[in-house]
């Protein structure tokens, strides 16, 4: 998601309590800690101590590895800086498809994303892709041009691509097939059905499931997760959005990802410890090692 896409309805009420810790370390493959802590203000950077407390709360429930995702130039810089100073965090950098659709993926912005993508703890370009829900047809050409530019940046630096796909499944595959997908391509907040999951799996892409997996109405999503090989699965919060059941509608945070990991274990029939190990292995294959030994 992006700030401009954000609804305050996602953040009603008190942050939910932390769940029971996972039996083995897992990963939040997609978070926006800056938005979690800033309440959507873009003018003031989040306070380091508050950010560190949020990261420690995630580690305390078995989530010592996070990927902080940028949505524009300032938040991408912030993600890169956080990853450089905190061992538990790697960064992804991009201009979000809705920002691109609004004309914010100009050449100078893309040049800055390209510069950031070369940094050692920036391990993905994203979130990029297509959003046909928030962006109207007048922004689609700019959105696709930006998506193509981001794919090229990811390949140039040999880092993963993190895709935002909103109501654009077939179009995303068309662009990916046309450009040639990077070796590691992740569909963040996977939102397709079994047929689309199969198309992604066959291409070797990784499907990252968010709190939406726990929603009562998400039968098609659970079918998609069930057919995905365990080594092509990731789990994420997309916090502060998409809070899992039973806290839907309240603010999300990385420390709540165990709810989604447990739901994924149930859906796939993979035993919880084995699933946690697989999620960590897949995250390190896609994003590279967190290197400095995250605190568990
Ligand atoms: Zn997104
Ligand atoms: Zn996001």
Automatic annotation (TrEMBL):
Binding site for a divalent metal cation 1: 30, 32, 127, 238
Positions bound to a divalent metal cation 2: 164, 188
Single GO molecular function: hydrolase activity, acting on ester bonds
Top-level lineage group: Bacteria
Gene Ontology CC annotation, any one: cytosol
Organism: Geodermatophilus obscurus
A matching Pfam family: TatD_DNase
UniProt xrefs under SUPFAM superfamilies: Metallo-dependent hydrolases
Name of the protein described by the UniProt record: TatD DNase family protein
């Amino acid at each position: 998601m992006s700030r401009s896409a954000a609804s305050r309805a996602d953040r009603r009420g008190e942050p939910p309590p932390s769940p029971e810790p996972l039996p083995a370390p897992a990963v939040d493959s997609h978070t926006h800690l800056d938005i979690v802590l800033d309440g959507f203000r873009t003018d003031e950077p989040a306070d380091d101590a508050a950010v560190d407390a949020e990261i420690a709360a995630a580690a305390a429930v078995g989530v010592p590895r996070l990927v902080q995702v940028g949505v524009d130039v300032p938040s991408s810089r912030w993600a890169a800086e956080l990853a450089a100073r905190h061992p538990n965090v790697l960064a992804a950098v991009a201009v979000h498809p809705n920002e691109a659709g609004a004309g914010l993926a100009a050449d100078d912005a893309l040049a800055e994303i390209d510069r950031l993508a070369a940094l050692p703890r920036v391990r993905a370009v994203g979130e990029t892709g297509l959003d046909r829900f928030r962006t109207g047809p007048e922004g689609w050409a700019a959105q696709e041009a930006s998506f193509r530019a981001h794919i090229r940046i990811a390949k140039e630096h040999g880092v993963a691509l993190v895709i935002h796909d909103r109501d654009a499944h077939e179009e995303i595959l068309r662009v990916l097939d046309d450009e040639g997908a990077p070796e590691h391509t992740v569909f963040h907040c996977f939102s397709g059905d079994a047929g689309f999951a199969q198309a992604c799996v066959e291409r070797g892409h990784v499907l990252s499931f968010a709190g939406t997996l726990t929603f009562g109405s998400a039968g098609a999503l659970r079918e998609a997760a069930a057919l995905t090989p365990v080594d092509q699965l990731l789990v994420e919060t997309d916090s502060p959005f998409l809070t899992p059941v039973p806290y839907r509608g309240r603010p999300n945070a990385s420390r709540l990802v165990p709810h989604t990991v447990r739901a994924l274990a149930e859906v796939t029939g993979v035993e919880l410890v084995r699933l946690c190990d697989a999620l960590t292995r897949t995250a390190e294959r896609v994003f590279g090692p967190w290197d400095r030994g995250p605190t568990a």
